[in-house]
């Protein structure tokens, strides 16, 4: 007996119902409502191999409405991924492979961590962009090795979030024809029927973006869904939105179509009623053998993968250098073999130049040096390229040409949040190290995507310029005060604030070499003087903090500074010496890296018996961990002023004279 499509979809529904009921927590409504659509996509159209979730040419599937995670877990389990039924029984439990929202790296087959609505669809735009750029880079006539789609399920909540506008507008402009989004149009959010607060004409909205829109699809009619998806798969140079009308909680006789089924278990009585209504006689978590067999995609996936491998073998024979580069960038995600040598040579040139330049300019110089070394670098900026200086000499804007999209620098437009979440998608896809820039003060717009980079352990590089009150006349709206400390508080995020061109280059090296999380580069608009270093000090930059001056003799006070304030500390040290006070200067470009050093090294840099004065043009509380109760902090705990930068520094008390005064007080207190 062959299982019907309805029966196969009901297997998804009941796995979701039973898992949420057992956990007494979760969202059964979306999996129940989208089960018919998912059955058609995953059994008939999605290109994937359950035995190898990392197959490079697989289709990407993103559940943007991640609260419906049991839909994805049921699909992964049923199609043959390494997600046994016991893990579904442990839904939302400690250390299970089925957390409350899908998490990449936890569950095999999950492409991205979703839950913060709107970011999943935006990750998917980044994935589709990565696919298009890799295709133009590696495909050759008669040899197509990059040819996959990015599929997204999304709900009303994703469409309400502003980030969806940012990303989908850009996706239409870029013509990402292999991006297909399926809208679960059920008209329900947690607060109830959405009409009083969400009355957009969504199809017209997406048509205005330049998308192809397939309207009025009955999401519970498998034939209608199949027909719509077949149309969507015909690449016409536009992304596609498939508008599927569904009933949330479909199958629940008393709660379907209401917000009661959105974010809570059905309850024992309604679970029983749903079983009866669907004609599902099996106990919780039981899937009959014939249904399992009909769902199993392992043989089909292995055949698809095998065919691609044969094509790749032919590609390797015809284009061995390209194949080796594809394997390095996409399959192994490794840096080039000659990168360490060439990168060290580039750093040596920066040291020799000893340039007094803004660290944003030093960053641009680093990008120019690194681009020939790392063709996987994919840059961009949120409409501020000329200010962020994220384009190197060999940067080429991403544009559509005869071979498709090509280039290595994305004009993201004024879309800080969208840019950041797209870069997460690019990193997740593989083949690129994405970096993108904006002013530091606008990192607030992007912060949740930075948090997701850190949570997902993705090597995204955020370039944040105009790092302090030093930018001057733009005033307090553009002068970051709390932002650096705020970014440092994100677990697994590394924040580098270099003091000169040398530290800037080392920060870039650390950023592109990092594979387990994001890096934020905090860069100045104003010029910063070059600092002289020994070879040992140069090597120590990579340890996050080091003694820049005064380490060869006992000190009465330590001046701990970052970025532009390191020069201020160095000037103060000279004045203190003239007044008989011995000071050492510690440059701390990256607190997170310094904190990870062994205790002996940290004590060598910051001896406990020497009082510490921390100096940074930002909020002061963060630095108390380094100064302790006996130390002091010079910073800014108020908003800035509109005036030339030096005048703002004077007005807010971040000056050499003030450092000297406070350092002398600390030294005197320590002497007593």
Radius of gyration: 28 Å
Number of helices: 27
Poorly predicted ranges: none
Sheet with most strands: strand arrangement = 12-9-13-14-16-15
- The chain-level structural class is alpha/beta
What would the average pLDDT be, to the nearest integer? 97
Shape label: elongated
Q: Describe the largest sheet.
A: 6 strands, parallel
Strand content: 5-15%
What distinguishing features does this structure have?
6-stranded parallel β-sheet; elongated
Question: How would you describe the overall organization of this protein?
Answer:
- This protein is an alpha/beta fold and 672 residues long.
- 44% of the residues lie in helices and 14% in strands.
- The model has no long low-confidence stretch (mean pLDDT 97).
Ordered list of secondary-structure elements with their pairings:
Blueprint: H1 5-23, H2 29-44, E1 60-63, H3 69-79, H4 85-89, H5 119-138, E2 150-155, H6 156-160, H7 162-174, E3 179-185, E4 188-189, E5 192-193, H8 202-209, E6 212-218, H9 222-232, E7 240-245, H10 268-278, H11 289-295, H12 298-318, H13 320-332, H14 339-353, E8 357-358, H15 359-370, E9 377-381, H16 385-388, E10 399-401, E11 404-406, E12 409-411, H17 416-429, E13 433-439, H18 443-456, E14 461-465, H19 483-488, E15 494-496, H20 501-513, E16 519-522, E17 527-528, H21 535-540, E18 546-549, E19 557-561, H22 565-578, E20 583-587, H23 591-595, H24 599-605, E21 612-615, H25 624-627, E22 632-634, H26 645-651, H27 656-671
Parallel strand pairs: 1-2, 2-3, 3-7, 6-7, 9-12, 9-13, 13-14, 14-16, 15-16, 19-20, 19-21, 21-22
Antiparallel strand pairs: 4-5, 8-17, 10-11, 18-20
């Amino acid at each position: 007996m062959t299982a019907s499509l309805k029966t196969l979809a009901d297997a998804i529904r009941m796995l979701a119902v039973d898992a949420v009921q057992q956990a007494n927590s979760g969202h059964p409504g979306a999996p129940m409502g989208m089960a018919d659509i998912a059955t058609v996509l995953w059994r008939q159209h999605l290109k994937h191999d359950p035995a190898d979730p990392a197959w490079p040419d697989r289709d990407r599937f993103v559940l943007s409405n991640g609260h419906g995670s049991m839909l994805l877990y049921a699909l992964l389990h049923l199609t043959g991924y390494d997600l046994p039924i016991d893990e579904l029984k442990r839904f939302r439990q400690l250390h299970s492979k089925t957390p409350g929202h899908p998490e990449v790296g936890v569950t095999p087959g999950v492409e991205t961590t979703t839950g913060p609505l709107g970011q999943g669809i935006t990750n998917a735009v980044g994935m589709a962009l990565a696919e298009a750029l890799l295709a133009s880079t590696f495909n050759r006539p008669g040899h197509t090795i990059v040819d996959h789609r990015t599929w997204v399920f999304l709900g009303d909540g994703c469409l309400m979030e502003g980030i969806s506008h940012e990303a989908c507008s850009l996706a239409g402009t870029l013509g990402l024809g292999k991006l297909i989004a399926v809208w679960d149009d059920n008209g329900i959010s947690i607060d109830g029927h959405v009409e009083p607060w969400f009355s957009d004409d969504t199809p017209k909205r997406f048509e205005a973006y330049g998308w192809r829109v397939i309207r009025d699809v009955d999401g519970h009619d498998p034939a209608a869904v199949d027909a719509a998806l077949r149309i969507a798969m015909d690449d016409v140079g536009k992304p596609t939105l498939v508008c599927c009308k569904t009933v949330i909680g479909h199958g629940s006789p008393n709660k379907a179509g209401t917000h009661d089924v959105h974010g809570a278990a059905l309850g024992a009585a309604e679970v029983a009623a749903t079983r009866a209504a669907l004609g599902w006689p099996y106990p919780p978590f039981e899937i009959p053998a014939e249904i399992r067999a009909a769902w199993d995609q392992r043989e089909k996936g292995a055949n698809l993968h095998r065919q691609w491998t044969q094509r790749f073998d032919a590609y390797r024979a015809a284009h061995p250098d390209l194949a080796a580069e594809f394997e390095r960038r996409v399959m192994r995600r490794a840096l080039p073999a000659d990168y360490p040598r060439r990168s060290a040579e580039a750093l040596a040139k920066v040291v020799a130049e000893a340039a007094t330049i803004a660290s944003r300019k030093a960053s641009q110089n680093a990008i120019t040096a690194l681009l020939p070394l790392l063709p996987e670098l994919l840059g961009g900026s949120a409409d501020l390229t000329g200010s962020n200086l994220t384009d190197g000499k060999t940067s080429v804007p991403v544009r559509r040409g005869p071979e498709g999209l090509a280039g290595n620098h994305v004009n993201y437009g004024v879309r800080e949040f969208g840019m950041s979440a797209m870069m997460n998608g690019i990193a997740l896809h593989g083949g690129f190290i994405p970096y993108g820039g904006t002013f530091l003060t606008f990192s607030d717009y992007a912060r949740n995507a930075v948090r997701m980079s850190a949570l997902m352990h993705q090597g995204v590089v955020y370039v944040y310029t105009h790092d302090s009150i030093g930018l001057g006349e733009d005033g307090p709206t553009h002068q970051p005060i709390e932002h650096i400390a705020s970014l440092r508080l994100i677990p697994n995020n590394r924040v580098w604030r270099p003091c000169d061109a040398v530290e800037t280059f080392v920060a870039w090296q650390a950023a592109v070499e990092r594979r387990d999380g994001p890096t934020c580069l905090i860069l100045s608009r104003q010029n910063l003087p070059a600092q002289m270093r020994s070879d040992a000090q140069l090597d120590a930059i990579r340890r996050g903090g080091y003694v820049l001056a005064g380490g060869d003799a006992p000190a009465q006070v330590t001046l701990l500074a970052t970025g532009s304030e390191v020069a201020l500390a160095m000037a103060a040290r000279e004045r203190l010496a003239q007044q008989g006070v011995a000071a050492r200067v510690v440059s701390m470009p990256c607190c997170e890296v310094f904190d990870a050093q062994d205790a002996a090294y940290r004590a060598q840099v910051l001896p406990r018996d020497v009082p510490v004065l921390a100096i940074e043009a930002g909020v002061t509380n963060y630095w108390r961990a380094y100064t302790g109760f006996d130390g002091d902090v010079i910073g800014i705990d108020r908003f800035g002023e509109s005036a030339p930068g030096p005048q703002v520094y004077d007005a807010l008390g971040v000056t050499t004279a003030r450092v000297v005064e406070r350092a002398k007080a600390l030294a005197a207190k320590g002497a007593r």
